[in-house]
Write a structure and sequence with these properties.
Blueprint (H helix, E strand, L loop, with lengths): L8 E5 L26 H12 L11 E5 L9 H10 L4 E3 L9 H9 L4 E5 L5 H8 L4 H14 L3 E8 L7 H10 L4 E6 L14 H14 L5 E5 L3 H11 L5 H4 L4 H14 L14 E2 L2 E5 L4 E3 L9 E2 L5 H7 L1 H7 L5 H5 L10 H8 L15
Parallel strand pairs: 1-2, 1-9, 2-3, 3-4, 4-5, 5-6, 6-7, 8-9
Antiparallel strand pairs: 9-10, 10-11
Helix pairs in contact: 1-2, 6-10, 7-8, 7-10
The chain binds iron/sulfur cluster (SF4).
Length: about 375
């Protein structure tokens, strides 16, 4: 699959308004909608246009992920979802856990055919999660929301932003992912945008440790995916290729891996099944496409390079024809990523390359790999 014609996921930041103020928020979310937010009519036009991805022979329907801010702050949410379903788009939701995540609204969304909801959980303890989310009591509310979503019949994904503050709780977080019955755990590696610029990222060696841990976590009944950490696919491919009883020695891993891998075994026992890790070589602008609250198209939510505005340009042609996205899809990179034999399945985080050097086609400094 080349992803030249159609993204797998289109993220639409329906609003920047959100009742929370998380330290790593990409949108640096605010209490009220920001100026220029797409109106209901503009939103309806957008979902109609996204439906046109299906119109060409190689085209298919991308999954429309409605995000924010907090998507529940859009009073026209059911109208927008209904239109997206009419346009043939599968719809997933990424809401914040606030009182706006009501049973009535969730049941309405379920009736319209929304099957997947992702919820952020940024630690395995109240102190860590609430330290990041900034809301007392939010840890318990998040666990309740995850369980309620399962009871209402949604497929649930847990999203975790990994950072120094929670890296030593990753195994325990994986245990919660399993306990709440999530089908997927999506782990985001920080990029210095929005409030995230104030957080301390892990080193490349620690990222390598985390990637190996995630591979092992994917053997407990839920899929593991990464955001802005495509080198996870390199690690997963290597782990499938090289069977070893002692990954720490075989892959020269560090103390973070050793500690958390042992903890994972302690909490969940021996691996239960084959690893579930996607091998699809998606990255910012290749399979991933982002529309901001005011209609600007970007390669991804963490790569703030404007490609055009959907108020005056068709998003399908922006995705298919923009020179930057074509270069990203052809893996025309410089530095280590340009020399890397794995650049097609990985390709590095384009957002982090841009944040580090101003070049979205440069190398990803968070990757520890030195190409042969
Ligand atoms: S060098 Fe770049 S392409 Fe190669 S594994 Fe690392 S991030 Fe991926």
């Amino acid at each position: 699959m080349t992803f030249d014609e159609t993204p797998v996921l289109v993220f639409w930041e329906t609003t920047q308004a959100c009742g929370l103020a998380c330290r790593h928020c990409r949108a640096s979310a605010v209490q009220e909608p920001s100026p220029g937010q797409l109106t209901t009519d503009e939103g309806l036009a957008l979902v109609d246009q996204l439906g046109h991805f299906r119109a060409t022979p190689k085209g298919r329907a991308p999954v429309l992920v409605l995000t924010g801010g907090d998507v529940m702050m859009r009073p026209d949410l059911l109208v927008l979802v209904g239109r997206a379903r009419q346009a043939g788009l599968p719809v997933a939701l990424a809401p914040s856990v606030t009182p706006k995540l009501s049973t009535d609204l969730l049941e309405g969304l379920r009736t319209l055919g929304v099957s997947s909801v992702s919820i952020s959980l940024d630690g395995a303890t109240a102190a860590t999660h609430e330290g990041i989310r900034g809301v007392p009591g939010h840890f318990k509310e998040t666990l309740s929301a995850l369980r309620q979503l399962r009871e209402l019949g949604f497929r649930v994904q847990v999203n975790t932003a990994v950072m120094r503050a929670n890296a030593r709780e990753l195994a325990a977080t994986a245990a919660i992912v399993k306990e709440v019955g999530a089908t997927a755990w999506e782990v985001f590696f920080l990029v210095k945008v929005g409030r995230g610029q104030h957080e301390q990222e892990l080193s490349p060696e620690e990222n390598e440790d985390v990637a190996h841990l995630l591979f092992e976590a994917s053997q407990y009944g839920f899929a593991v995916r990464t955001v802005e950490g495509p080198w996870y696919r390199r690690v997963a491919a290597k782990r499938r290729e090289v069977e070893t009883e002692d990954p720490a020695t075989t892959f020269s891993l560090g103390p973070l891996y050793r500690e958390q891998s042992a903890r994972l075994r302690q909490l969940l026992g021996p691996p239960e099944r084959a690893p579930q890790s996607s091998t699809a070589g998606t990255r910012d602008g290749k399979g991933i496409f982002f529309i901001s609250h005011d209609g600007w198209a970007f390669p991804a939510g963490f790569l703030p390079l404007r490609l055009g505005n959907i108020k005056d340009r068709d998003p399908v042609s922006i995705y298919r024809d923009h020179p930057l996205l074509k270069a990203i899809r052809r893996a025309e990179f410089s530095g280590r990523c340009g020399r890397c034999e794995l650049r097609d399945i990985c390709g590095g985080s384009r957002a982090r390359a841009w944040a580090a050097s101003g070049n979205p086609l440069g190398e990803d400094p968070a990757c520890a790999y030195v190409p042969s």
